[in-house]
Amino acid sequence: MIVGAGPSGLTIAQTIASEGGDVLILEEHPEVGVPQHCTGKVSVNAVKELELEAAGVLARVSGAIFYPPSLKPLTIARGATQALILDRRIFDQSLATKAVDAGATLVTDTRVKRFSVKPDGVTVFFERKGKKGKVKARLVAGADGAASATARLAGIYSKKRSEVRISIQREVSGVQVVQSMVELYFGRRWAPGFFAWIVPTGRDTARVGLALRPNAPAPAAKYLDDFVENHPIAREKLGGGRILTESRHIIPTGGVLHRAVSDGVLVVGDAAGQVKSTTGGGLYYGMACAKIAGRTIVEALRGSPEAVLREKTLRSYEKEWRAQFGGEIAFSVRFRAFLDSLSDSEVDYLFNVIQRDASLIRRIEVDGDIDRQSKVGVTLLRYVKYVIKKPGLMFKLRKVFPRPNLT
After folding, report:
1. What is the chain's pLDDT, residue by residue, as a tens digit (407 residues)?
2. Taking the CB of residue 303, how many other CB atoms lie within 10 A of it?
């Protein structure tokens, strides 16, 4: 049984169902893909690697414009399209159709309340439209987001409050956007502990949002209002825009759970912390790990004589996804910790260092990979360590990235 009909859960479901497995998907919302919980940005490389049908493409972007607190922009771009901005409702529902066509059963507007793992299987208790029910399965796969009830009920949720960010995003119309570029805005006034963004979705439409550390002085909505109304650059683009929708969610920026499997339980995607802490992006990691999970479950269903799938039969999933993505996610956690330690003046200083060197910018443009950031990240860190003239900044850098990692 799958908890959550997002891209990760639906990928697992399709993988199992296509191999003849009996799959039930329980989704808490009435409609798959609603509300929209992220920017919908997925790299062209990820689409190719995962063999996705890129349904619901709203925009194609070739790079990003970074606005530090000083407001002096840094543009990193390539000529060709680097990422697609998706309508998550259309994209998720296309995945749901494929899973159902493969043989999975999808039930919406249903919330899992608890489950019990015993030798004869996992009994899942749920509530749907005010009515209670239960179902028995050999495994519960949790793809239910950063606050994963599945991981909590299984006793494997290990995140601290400081290891997440609180996010808010609005779909807006009637705004001025650069249709081929994502815009990122930094500064503690606007988004302490993360950044704000403008992501184009059409000629005059965009997704506008930001994320904050949990202990920020004010609610996320107040920060977003301030950003839209008062940021010297953003207000010129967003002024007079009309809010179409608003959504809020948690971003797991503090790395992965200590364990992603236990007897009768497996978690994937945001629920497992399979997210880039630098940007909060998790579509690619989640779906790639879901494919690994799906294959593991298929093999376990065929090979295990026990009614409930034991942790030992699921360890190959744990081993494989950590081998492929654990290092990248760990790097992003360290880089996020470094960024979080910086004052606005230190952020401006680092942007100035980069902006002074056209060859470095070109190298970032050539080597940069949205999904695997460690290569260009290490290149950048090795460069800036030689030109940083502020001892306090070097101390922060070496505290997060010890000397052996930068040589």
Report:
1. 999 999 999 999 999 999 999 999 999 999 999 998 789 999 999 999 999 988 999 999 999 999 999 999 999 998 899 999 999 999 999 999 999 999 999 999 999 999 999 999 999 999 998 999 999 999 999 999 999 999 999 999 999 999 999 999 999 999 999 889 999 999 999 999 999 999 999 999 999 999 999 999 999 999 999 999 999 999 999 999 999 999 999 999 999 999 999 999 999 999 999 999 999 999 999 999 999 999 999 999 999 999 999 999 999 999 999 999 999 999 999 999 999 999 999 999 999 989 998 988 988 888 888 898 888 888 888 787 778 888 888 889 888 888 645 54
2. 9
Q: Kindly state the tokens that stand for 51.
A: 């063999």
Lookup: tokens for 15: 């993988």
Separation of alpha carbons 141 and 139, rounded Å: 6
Domain 2-30+108-161+254-332: which topology?
FAD/NAD(P)-binding domain (3.50.50)
Beta bridge partners of 73: none
- Same fold across 2-30+108-161+254-332 and 162-251: no
CA 349/CA 352 separation, integer angstroms: 5
147 Cβ contact partners less than 8 Å away, ≥ 6 residues apart = 250
Bridge partners, residue 132, by sequence: 127
Ordered by start, the domain boundaries in the chain are: 2-30+108-161+254-332, 162-251, 342-406
Cα 51 to Cα 182: distance, rounded to the nearest angstrom: 24
Contacts of 356 (CB under 8 A, 6+ apart): none
CATH class of 162-251: alpha beta
pTM: 0.95
Q: What is the largest CA-CA distance in the chain?
A: 65
Q: Helix count (H) and strand count (E) of the chain?
A: 13, 19
Residues 6+ apart with CB under 8 A from 161: 214
